[in-house]
Amino acid sequence: MNHASIIPHLKAVPTPPVTKVTSDTGTFTLKPDGIYYAGFGKDGQQLPEKRISSLLKVLASTADEGGCNHGVLLEWRDNRNNLHKWAMPKELLGGDGVDIAKSLLGRGLDIKHGCKGKLLDYIQSSTPDKRLTSVSRTGWHDRIYVTSNKTYGEGADDYIYQSDTAIKSAGKAGTLEEWREHVAAYAWGNSRLILAISSAFAGTLIHLAGAESGGVHLFGGSSCGKTTLLELACSVWGNPKQYKRTWRGTSNGLEGLAAAHNDGFLPLDEIKEAKAKDIAEVAYMLSNGQEKARLAKTTNLRDIKTWRLMILSTGELTLTEYLKSEGIRVYAGQEVRLASVPADAGRGYGLFEELHGMTGGELSEHIKAQSAKYYGVAGEAWLEHVTANYDAITSEIHDKIQQFKDLALDAQSSSQAGRVANRFGLIAYAGELATQYGLTGWNAGDATSAALTCFKAWLAEFGTGNREEKQILEAVKSFIDRNGVKFQVHTVDREGINIMDVPDRVGFKTKDSDGDGFAYLVYNSQLERLAEGHSKTAIIAALKNANWLRLDREGKSSIKKRIAGQSERFFVIVPKD
Question: Could you report how far apart the first and last alpha carbons of the chain are, in Å?
Fold first, then answer.
């Protein structure tokens, strides 16, 4: 169990030196080589001191803005002189302390055998003067942005990330100039690569735009370079091998992962590594921004984890293809939340459009190698700029997204296309901002052009009409084709037809008076069976818009028919090819 937001390589928080801490059982003395403890004998005399651990400082006390979740900020160095910090929740002291000891030992603190209890006593007895505001989730807190190892923005020094389930820092290597020259430069001219890097920046802006979570799913063959693209995007925030995630795992596991990446970027590789039924649920869960409500051990509802995310996913199949291959119904909402874009750019080079003087394979290997060499620095620089320009970004972000939508959409575009255009517009704006801040080395307009190219590729795959209505029509046609025996044949000139014993009857079918096919008379109570999962209102609207539904003389959706001496209203459906 990982109980640490324990971060190496941080500067120490300035604090007056503490040399002694007194508890009920004895005195702890802090020396350069460690903590020494001197207890009291039976006669009340102080015993000789002994070393219980290497030096561990308690720098500050912590509590959230509501006065709860108290903790302490610990600092120590390992035997390689790396500096570590941990904003440790005090509630961990309520147990036997084993998890605390494991976390400290795992990060290089030397605890002498049998001295765990003394060390916990030292921590609990320390009363530092400095007080910090703790937060239990990364991301935006008012105008301050908190990560697991650093806070950004005015007043950031008063905040600290405190959690027993923090993601491990993915680290950084190289300089911003090196990342820009050796990594971002090779995305230039390649729409999918620019989109990927822009997506990595865009998660930070979701809150500022008041946008919904969601993502982009790049699909294509196993050799087209999807993993290269994902590692390129991950290099914005850290070591790609550590930062990159896979779809493998339960939805519960991904909930924790989503919460840990709040207001950020979540890369997920290879969608087929997860079960299709989990993917169907997770597609909604990740974009809806919160976990399921669950009971705590006290039977009270515990605090629900929430998040805002930009997801970049890869796989050989689209979300729709994968779910359908496993016999799972696909809904338009799932497809909109995770927009499927072909990874192949259509130039004959797989993922690439511009090879920068190399072959496709050489460029792919070069990007992977450089992304593993230079990483994590662009994300830090991005957060410094975004927090410093919070007001300017907030004032223009909606106009910038609308400008993209004006380029991407026309008057006939569906509302679903509009939702996806919002996301691509946010990604485009993030890429343009990163370029403006000098992070990418691209030209102004490159990120917008790349996002527009990829959006059009998505639209060609998704279709220009209302996707949900298309799915309803497909479901109705499929139901009729598979269940013809559930419709009794009925001829117009035999209104007195006897009702036959048709098992599980849905309605009747008769020759269409306006064509060569059949018209299907569906009982009011049976309509939703034709497109399960969709409301009756949505089904009627889809049938009307496709001109599949015959209306009565007053324009009502159902028509009164007399069958076997009984008058009843039916939905009269005439499917079109």
Answer: 58
- Beta-carbon count within 10 A of 384 CB: 15
SS3 content of the chain, % helix, strand, coil (to 5): 40, 20, 40
From CA 283, how far away is CA 177, in angstroms rounded? 36
Instruction: Write out residues in the chain with pLDDT < 70, as ranges.
Output: 1-18, 165-169, 249-252, 287, 290-303, 464-467, 490-501, 515, 564-565
> Which pLDDT score is estimated for 466?
67
Cα distance between residue 181 and residue 172, in whole Å: 16
Evaluated on CA atoms 306, 308, 312, 316, the torsion sign reads positive
Phi, psi for 535 (deg, rounded to 5):
-75, 160
Q: Please tell me the predicted confidence (pLDDT) of residue 331.
A: 72
What are the structural domains, with CATH classification, of the chain? 6-134 (no CATH), 176-465 (3.40.50), 468-573 (no CATH)
Distance between CA atoms of residues 122 and 35, nearest Å? 9
Give the DSSP per-residue string, 251-319.
HHHHHHHHHHTTTEEEEEE-GGGS-HHHHHHHHHHHHHTBPPP-B-TTSSBPPPPB--EEEEEEESS-H
Q: Is 476 in contact with 544 (CB distance < 8 Å)?
A: no
Distance CA 259, CA 152 (A): 19
Tens digits of residue pLDDT in 300-315: 444 677 899 999 999 9
pLDDT (tens digit, 9 = 90+) per residue, 356-403? 999 999 999 999 999 999 999 999 999 999 999 999 999 999 999 999
Distance between CA atoms of residues 465 and 447, nearest Å: 27
198 near 434, Cβ under 8 Å? yes
